[in-house]
Design goal:
alpha/beta; Rossmann fold; about 300 residues
Length: about 300
Amino acid sequence: MKVLITGVTGLLGSQLARHYSQLGHEVWGLIHRTHPQPELARHITPVHTPNELSGNFELAINLAGASIAGGRWTAQRKRALRDSRIGVTQDLLAQVTREKYHIDHLISGSAIGYYGSTTETVTEQSPAGTDFSAQMVADWEACALAGQTAIKKITLVRTGLVLSNRGGLLKQLALPARLGLAARLGHGNQGQSWIHETDWVNAITWLHEQGLTGPVNLTAPGPVSQNTFSRALANQLHRPYWLKVPATPVRWGMGELADLVLNGQWVVPSRLKEEGFTFAFPDLESALRDLLGER
């Protein structure tokens, strides 16, 4: 099988590239700026623009997008966030509609930010939120769905907080936790909808095998409060849990981005559960134990 991955140098893209390469598939990686590390480069055929793509891709996984946590959400930063998602997706699909290359199944990146900040439990049937993040993700999904005239199957994967010991959120949180500085942020009751990296990779493979289309939440079946998450992390690392950070300094430091951190989201993967996907790490304790070692 011929596979295309955009955002291939990122945390998830690089893991997918290794996964499909090790299964014996031909993997092409669309690289924007960052050059792949030598270990990753041996798994992919690198290209820098969609104009370099050719042939038929049985599967394309679109993961391009700058990190939403890469800085305060200034007007310039918001434009960069939108362009890195919507602009790259438009460029990718423009060449498909011109029949420069073909894609049978597009799994397009999305995010649980689609639902906005909410205290209610949401599923794939829930409406989009109204804040900046929600509107950006909704527009991103609409851009991907515009390719339906040329692509047989399109799946929108609304990814939650991915836990990995190679980087990302967990690595950022584990360092202060090891110093005894895991903290409750604000009231601590805001939802954190997470997924183990292994389950995320397995879910992508499974979605393609099953041919599921439309929106799919890629989160574990057990979202937890921010307070519960931080306490579990501290316990896993055998560190105290006592620090409480009020909402005001968080808002001072993060600006508008603080809404996602302080309000949170309770997202459940209804479609994965209904269709029979099996999670290797359905609960937070087993995920942290696997990633951070035995207690």
